[in-house]
Amino acid sequence: MLEYTRFANRKALEQIYRVLVPAVSPLSWPTTTAYESRLREIVYSEPYEDHSARQFRHLNWRAVFEDDQIKSTPFTLQASADPLFSLPLGEASESWTRWQTKEEIWQNWQTKSQLAKLSDAEKQQVKKRFDDVLDADDVERNENGKIAVHGKTYWVWTSKIPGVPLKEGG
User: Fold this and answer.
1) More confident site: 72 or 144
2) Helix (H, G, I), strand (E, B) or coil at 39
3) H helix intervals, the chain
4) Per-residue model confidence (pLDDT) at position 114
5) Per-residue confidence at 99, pLDDT binned at 50, 70, 90?
6) pLDDT surpassing 70 at residue 44
7) CA torsion 68→163→16→80, rounded to 10°?
8) pLDDT-based confidence at 26, cuts 50/70/90?
């Protein structure tokens, strides 16, 4: 699976082109309820927001395909074009709900780069806010007391253009 958060530049795209083999790599980005929105407000607010980290939600990954490649299509081929992948990108998505305990959600949640880098004291402050959100009355729970975690998985696909890029005479 490609790590989608790290290839929002041409150099990375060229490396992917070099090593790409056919595969499907789903990308996940959650949809939200009111309580999930409150959780997001914690992790994506200052001082936790990591502005240096590329993240799927910022959609920078799309720009590397569109900015560098949209200049040239099979209908408007330019001599200066250097396309690596076919356009337009294929896209699909599927919404889902997973039921988890508060502890399971926290275990997953604290792997986010914004939180993983915090000191233990800072993590405890975030954990208190996290607990306050998930202890609220509006949190969706099933008959076993597990909490609904909503998400949406995205698939984006393209085809590698075979041969040497056009700029090199391919």
Assistant:
1) 144
2) helix
3) 10-19, 34-43, 60-69, 102-109, 113-116, 120-134
4) 78
5) very high
6) yes
7) -20
8) very low
Sequential DSSP letters for 49-93: --TTS--GGGTHHHHHHHHHHTT--TTS--TT----B-SSPEEEE
Measure the CA–CA gap between 56 and 62, rounded to whole angstroms: 9
Give the dihedral of Cα atoms 14, 17, 20, 25; nearest 10 deg.
80
Q: Which residues contact 84 (CB under 8 A, 6 or more apart)?
A: 13, 14, 17, 69, 160, 161, 165
Structure tokens at 167: 């700029």
Q: Are 151 and 95 in contact (CB under 8 A)?
A: yes
The pLDDT of residue 47 is above 60? yes
Q: Is 77 exposed, middle or buried (0-12, 13-18, 19+ CB in 10 A)?
A: exposed
Which residue's entry shows tokens 């929002």? Answer: 8
Contact 149, 105 (CB under 8 A): yes
The single residue listed with the structure tokens 């009355």 is: 137
pLDDT digits (tens, 9 = 90+) for 48-88: 665 566 666 666 677 777 766 655 555 555 555 567 777 77
